[in-house]
Amino acid sequence: MKRLTGLVLTLCVLLAAAGCSGDTEIITDSTSEASSQTTSAATAESSSKTEATVQTAESTTTTNTMSENPNDDVPVEKEVQILELNERTTFEYRWSEDTAMPLVECECTSVILGGEDADRFPALAAVLMDAADAEESSLKDEYEMFSEAVDEMIGMGMELQAPLVSKFDAQVRRADSIVLSVLTDCHYDNGMNGGHRSFWASNYDTQTGEELHLPDIVTDMDAFTQAVEDRLFGTVGKDVFYNDGIIKEYFEMYGADGTHWTIDYNGVTMYFDEGEIADIGIGGMDVTVTFAEHPELFNEKYMAVSDDYIVSLPMKYMFYTDLDGDGSCEELIIYDRYDEDNNASVDICTADNSYSESFMAYSCEPYYIKTADSKHYLYLFTELETQMYLYVYNISGGAISKVGEANVTPYYNDGVSTVPTDPDRMHFDIFGDGAGGGVSEGNDIFAVGADGMPAHG
Question: From CA 137, how far away is CA 126, in angstroms rounded?
Answer without folding.
Answer: 17
